[in-house]
Amino acid sequence: MKIAPNRPLSTLPAPADVARKRRFEDGENYRMHRKLALMLTVVLLAAVVGGCSRITVAYNSASFFIERYADDYLALDGAQMAQWSPTLKSALARHREEELPYLAAFFDSAGKDAAAGFTPADARCLLDRFEVIYRRHFVLAADAAGPLLAGLDDRQIDELAAKFAEEAEEDRVDESPAAVAKRQRKRGERYADNLEWWVGDLTSKQRGILLDVARRMPDTAKDWYAYRDNKRRELIRLLRGGASAERVEAFLRDWLVDYNDLPADLQGARSGLRRHMTDLLVRIDATLSDAQRRHFVDRLHGLRDDFMTLQQAPRMATLTGC
What we know:
Elements: H1 41-50, H2 55-60, H3 62-74, H4 78-116, H5 120-150, H6 154-170, H7 177-199, H8 204-216, H9 221-240, H10 245-257, H11 264-285, H12 290-309
Helix pairs in contact: 3-4, 4-5, 4-12, 5-10, 5-11, 6-9, 7-8, 8-11, 9-10
């Protein structure tokens, strides 16, 4: 599950969106160009957006799902898959041991805040903790993807570069006023669809709040895609130069975890997005009916319970900060 690169809870896709949201329409939702490093994060997002009743199936099928996904995107041969499979299984074991307790604690804390009502401080804390989830998962993803990418042959690297170029062409951004307005409208509609999964049917007032916030967010799609395409080209150059798995892992961490060379305007866009999402959460929270709040709390606590059940020795991690 991008979004400045992180995706707050209210923007996670609802179940019906998963199959069709192959291509995000605005810059803050960092599209699935992260396919290479999303191999582990997809476990979290598939579970969260699939609904509580589907989490166990999604999670316990993760190894098969991710292997098929990687094979489809990179056209791996049997030897490459066999060599990478132990790395993937090790990463998933680390995820079960280290990340599930954090996820359980995150949703437990979010459920308590939702029950009491979100203050601005609560909303900022929620986004901080979701950023931690994002970073922890992408560290695992980079560590798992590095050996796989470093093992690609020349033909596979050329094919990957061609896919990147094709997707870059598909992502050309129309900056006309009409196109910007359309992206803002669709962003608001997407937020509404997603939020309904969390709280139930929305009122016209709540939909108006979502559209208002969507319109006030800056349109940075062109800049995000340009940055992404530049990083993709760097990755291809690394692979063609025979970079080691460790070097590729470091590159992915710099890019997708630490944002070490993110341009200043995009850093500012990420900060602005956080402010807008804080405002959105607080404004929507103030309008929730008793039924919507119960629905929201039930969703959050249901996810907590499922992430506890998936653990061999169930526990919740200690959340720090805030």
